[in-house]
Amino acid sequence: MSQNFEHSGTSWKGQRLKHDESMVDRLDPRVRIIVVSIFALAVVLSHDFYVLLLGLVSAVATAVIAQLNFKRTLRRVIAMDMFMIFLILMLPFTTPGEALFSIAGLPASKEGLLHALMIALKANAVVFALLALIGTMSAATLGHAMAHLRVPDKLVHLLLFTVRYLDVIGQEYKRMRRAMQARAFVMTVSKHTWRSVGYLIGMLLVHSLERSERIMDAMKCRGYKGQFYLMDDMVLQRQDYLFMMLSVPFFLLLIGLNFI
Amino acid sequence: MTVLIETRGLSYRYPRRGEVLNEIDFKLEAGDRVALTGSNGAGKTTLLHLLVGLKKAKAGEIHAFGAQRREEKEFVEVRARAGFLFQDPDDQLFCPTVLEDVAFGPLNLGKARDEAMQLAHQALVSVGLEGFEERVTHQLSGGEKRMVTLASVLAMEPEVLLLDEPSNALDTKARWRLINILQELPQAMIIISHDDDFLDHLANRWVRLEDAKLFEDRRMIVPELRAVTV
Amino acid sequence: MTVLIETRGLSYRYPRRGEVLNEIDFKLEAGDRVALTGSNGAGKTTLLHLLVGLKKAKAGEIHAFGAQRREEKEFVEVRARAGFLFQDPDDQLFCPTVLEDVAFGPLNLGKARDEAMQLAHQALVSVGLEGFEERVTHQLSGGEKRMVTLASVLAMEPEVLLLDEPSNALDTKARWRLINILQELPQAMIIISHDDDFLDHLANRWVRLEDAKLFEDRRMIVPELRAVTV
Amino acid sequence: MHIVDGALSVPVLATGAVLGLIGVAIGLKKMDYDHLPQVGVLSAAFFIASYIHLPLGFSSVHLILNGLIGLALGWAAFPALLVALLLQAVFFGFGGFLVLGVNVVNIALPGLLVYYLCRHGIATSSPKGAAIWGAIGGAGSILLTTIMVAGSLALSGEAFILAAKATLVAHIPVMVVEGFVTAAAVLLIRKVKPEFLNISEDWEDA
Ligand SMILES: Nc1ncnc2c1ncn2[C@@H]1O[C@H](COP(=O)(O)OP(=O)(O)OP(=O)(O)O)[C@@H](O)[C@H]1O
Ligand SMILES: Nc1ncnc2c1ncn2[C@@H]1O[C@H](COP(=O)(O)OP(=O)(O)OP(=O)(O)O)[C@@H](O)[C@H]1O
Ligand SMILES: [Mg+2]
Ligand SMILES: [Mg+2]
């Protein structure tokens, strides 16, 4: 599992390049962000199983419509931090209440089980919706959409810079890592390994810092005066209005179900 | 001949390093296409940085576009009129999309948005990258990145071009396209390169940095490893 | 003759790129000093990476030091016995001081700290860098960096040397010192270089990568830019 | 240590969001436009570095490096980590959306504390002393983060208390590793580019 993570972190392009165009891609990024936010709020704040089930089903359906790569998505959804999984698994045994069954003498309570189930449903519903509606945009588009939604300029540009240089620095990391491997370096549990990795990270930061100096020079050469510009206009289209018109009753239903 | 850029007794040293440039006298005139050569670490990049004020000289004078330039404020104008192409395109392409990157310069020069877009578009066409406007910069190939950086320099309509190893990391086809484009440009240029054949197609004057000094000649290493001055 | 490294039908392709290596058969024998040539992007670096398992071949076999090598674990031993000098010294130097960097390899081979330091010191002496132990790697000149990386490879006492453009970024003096050092070394080597004169002083066998195939001959680009096969 | 959506109670979520907003706002304010490339590139470097997996017994740990991030960025660690966590949540499904605030505070605040506690320590003249301060920063930030994560959970429900305690114990080895790695990185940076560790102080003045 860890290999997969290392891979996804260092080859950033992953999702976008192999992504198949779908209906979702034609929707305005701002609408997608707003819809996901409302959806996440509605799901996370609810304590009703019908709402959560409906939420998960609709999120998965959106993922299907968005043509998410099934294997990759599933791997990511399952691969929540180990310690979260551990937490959820422990819940039935740490919550007092009506005992349902017991493992190794530890009684598992019904309340705990329901609580665990609820967390799992909420977490997965949100993740599917995120991956389907936002994960399918390019990071640059996400940044632009955030700017149009009045997220502070500096934060947006910080995001854009980070995304821009993930790849460049990822490549640099890979080359240094390979050079270490070529000198017969194998990671073990030892001070030597930790020291070497610390040096590797330190050197990566030094190289990055020097690169940022060169970038600043390049910006000055093009007359940079402390201002950035975003070029694109985002205009709502027919399909966006349609999507919003569909979303509103759906959210009303999600929220309304809580009170029935 | 109009002198565009001139240095007198320009010197520079890095901390913890010896002298990199020692009393350099240099003139760039209209129509000059100067090949700036010298071994690795000779100080070629440093010299160009000094010319546009990215580094401050330890001694000497820089005159550019009719005035002496000393302070940061004075160099801002120099940078607007001298287009600098960096050694590594990744350092220079910092905007998310190609169009934004190319329009960044004109916008900084105070152009209106429409005009900047127009200039950016023209610059892209002139380097043969029409239709690349919406491409994401970090997903371009090495050759495409180089051409985009050239476009973003040209979009500022500079009077002088300072090119730092422009043919690096280009395959044969891209390299030829670059040669053709550069040959057509009217601007005076300083071209740093280790690729003599590339320079042969472009330069009409050769200078060489060696031991922190600038020489007005061309040294060619012939295959027999004897050094001859042409 | 002992065959040290052998490949059979080795193929490799990058995603979104054509075939880079296509069914390469190659043998490295004791005493061989192979010059590996080919234009930029021909796949020379890729081939060396495959030999030590830094990339995984798409098809074909690699035999090294008497056994077939398929998995990461098997390649760890190959890497311990084949010293790899990278194209860019900056990728290879990641420790703060020269001594630590050179001692990194021996430490990976399981040597005790004292012994590793001893080996590192010897390696530094052998490339003429005595007294550089406490220097900061990042602040060395290009030529010095190159020599330090060579020392760090030699400190592992490899049986084979894989050198990726070792004469890059060296000035004339450093280049000659490198030639002299390499001439004295007893190991079999594969040397990638675009510098034919450098190879002339070292190689006793020439191979050439072209269109993803390996040819056992020497193509020399003579100054007039005509290509002749010798 | 990314908490997922759905585990925390509303008051905890809201507190996290407010604290996160304050931290990010101060961070953005302290970072002027000229430092954007620097923070952005470093943030990318940390993103890459935090994917490094180190073997530890039968399993492996991935580094978090929030101590080092704090030392390098100071207050700017808040926006930098917000960006990193947002990207992870949105593109890799790591962590969650509404918990972003809590996650940012849990990871960035310890980094910031380390910045104030250790930045003088790592600039002392003796390399050994600097390494020790670096180790304290690396291990300490993980300790604090673990406590805060456990706290967020415990405040969200009685049932989590045992799990929260387990989290603390389980992260002891991670602290050791992070301490070591951070110390080594600090040693290297001190030697190779001492200016680096003073950058954040310049911002203070600016
Ligand atoms: N920031 C720096 N601090 C210290 N020394 C530096 C710095 N930047 C460059 N140098 C050194 O100054 C010298 C000149 O560097 P410069 O980049 O100008 O060389 P160059 O002629 O452009 O070389 P190349 O052909 O490799 O690009 C080199 O020895 C280099 O190592
Ligand atoms: N990670 C990668 N992804 C995709 N293509 C790659 C990657 N690495 C290298 N390539 C491409 O594969 C080809 C072979 O690369 P390689 O580095 O082996 O060439 P080379 O012969 O060493 O060239 P040079 O003389 O420039 O070092 C090149 O066209 C290169 O652009
Ligand atoms: Mg240079
Ligand atoms: Mg190569």
From TrEMBL, chain A:
The chain crosses the membrane at residues 33-65, 193-210, 241-259. Its main location: membrane. One of its GO terms (biological process) is cobalt ion transport. It is found in: Cell membrane. The keyword Membrane applies. Keywords: Cell membrane, Membrane, Transmembrane, Transmembrane helix. It is a multi-pass membrane protein. InterPro entries: ABC/ECF_trnsptr_transmembrane, ECF_CbiQ, ECF_transporter_component. It comes from the Bacteria. One of its GO terms (cellular component) is ATP-binding cassette (ABC) transporter complex. The keyword Transmembrane helix applies. PANTHER family: SLL0384 PROTEIN. Belongs to the CbiQ family. This is Cobalt ECF transporter T component CbiQ. It comes from Amphritea balenae.
Automatic annotation (TrEMBL), chains B, C:
Residues 5-230 form the ABC transporter domain. It holds the Pfam family ABC_tran. SMART domains: AAA. One of its GO terms (molecular function) is ATP binding. Transmembrane segments: none annotated. CDD domains: ABC_cobalt_CbiO_domain1 (cd03225). InterPro entries: AAA+_ATPase, ABC_transporter-like_ATP-bd, ABC_transporter-like_CS, ABC_transpr_CbiO/EcfA_su, ECF_ABC_transporter_ATP-bd, P-loop_NTPase. Gene3D superfamilies: P-loop containing nucleotide triphosphate hydrolases. It comes from the Bacteria. Keywords: ATP-binding, Nucleotide-binding, Transport. GO terms for cellular component: ATP-binding cassette (ABC) transporter complex. The keyword ATP-binding applies. Belongs to the ABC transporter superfamily. This is ABC transporter ATP-binding protein.
Automatic annotation (TrEMBL), chain D:
PANTHER family: METAL TRANSPORT PROTEIN HI_1621-RELATED. It comes from the Bacteria. GO terms for cellular component: plasma membrane. The gene is cbiM. GO terms for biological process: transition metal ion transport. This is Cobalt transporter CbiM. Pfam families: CbiM. Gene3D superfamilies: 1.10.1760.20. Keywords: Cell membrane, Membrane, Transmembrane, Transmembrane helix, Transport. Its main location: membrane. The chain crosses the membrane at residues 7-27, 39-56, 68-91, 97-118, 130-156, 168-189. InterPro entries: CbiM/NikMN. It is a multi-pass membrane protein. It is found in: Cell membrane.
